[in-house]
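Sequence only, no structure available. Ideas?
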Amino acid sequence: MQIEEFIVYSETSIIETMNKIDKNSRRIVYVVDENRILLGAITDGDIRRYILKNGTINGLAMDVMNKEPKSLKKKNVHKAAELMKKYSITSMPVINDKGYLDYIEFDDGKKFYDTENLNVPVVIMAGGKGTRLYPYTQILPKPLIPIGEKTITEHIMDHFEVFGCEKFTMIVNYKKEFIKAFFRENENQRNVDFVDETIFSGTAGGLKLIKDKVKSTFFMSNCDILIEDNYSEIFRYHKENRNIITLVCALKKEIIPYGTIVTDETGKIKKLTEKPEFEFLTNTGFYVIEPEFLDEIPDNTFIHITDVIQSCIDKNMRVGVYPVNENAWMDMGQMKELEKMRKKVEK
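Reply:
I predicted one. Tokens follow.
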């Protein structure tokens, strides 16, 4: 089910609004204008009270809607569950800085995005040994580690398929035959092409292997992360800014649990700060890339993608950043983070 099932326009009839509420079974729709700006919300109770008061079902959505619905900016989306519980509501619309309805989050954890059929190829980097996840990866390659009832790679593919991205290329090396066999024999058959990395070449060195395979803009994801955000909006942002590469980065806040001290050259204290907070953007390992970026990767060289990105920056090429909330990023690169991801996915 897509977000369209939960949207009506201000001049939608009450009868059509009632039908949509009944069909989506969530007992609510949100009212938007032609630009998808959030205007209001309508529940089945709002319609019932309107009919009892006016004695008619003739009217428009604008006549019924609550004009001050609870909503959240994307940067505060981590508060959605808390606020739904506080206000005893079952859904929370998430809007961008311009008031555009980006997606709707429900109290059961499901999200419905404003999606479009992107049909953009996806490259998944799946060749590493995953040494930080020993002893798991001594038995299973990292792309096949289970998170709940599915492997991490299947979760990644599921997220992309919501946005119409169904063509996958996996760059494999460590235990590659194990990975290939899993997808060949999987009940849920997907369109997956495998590219063999014969020697470990780094994230960019491995990416160079697809130069003759991908001729259009593509997504790239490491095989140990999940990004829960609107991939359509990420792609639009990348294209509108004409970037050669766009890094999806998480906004993180760290608190130092001690008082910190700054001194001058004589040892005299200049400043003392109790439990300072630091905010920064962290590279998640999720990118939108133009094929021209591959020309910047040297042949037959061990090199990481961050080094190539820095080279592009030095050459004054357009390198962009798309920020997402810290809670939209799940990373299983280490044992502690793996368990956190499992708990979140299972919840």
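Residues 3-113 form a domain with the CBS-domain fold (CATH 3.10.580.10).
Hope that gets you unstuck.
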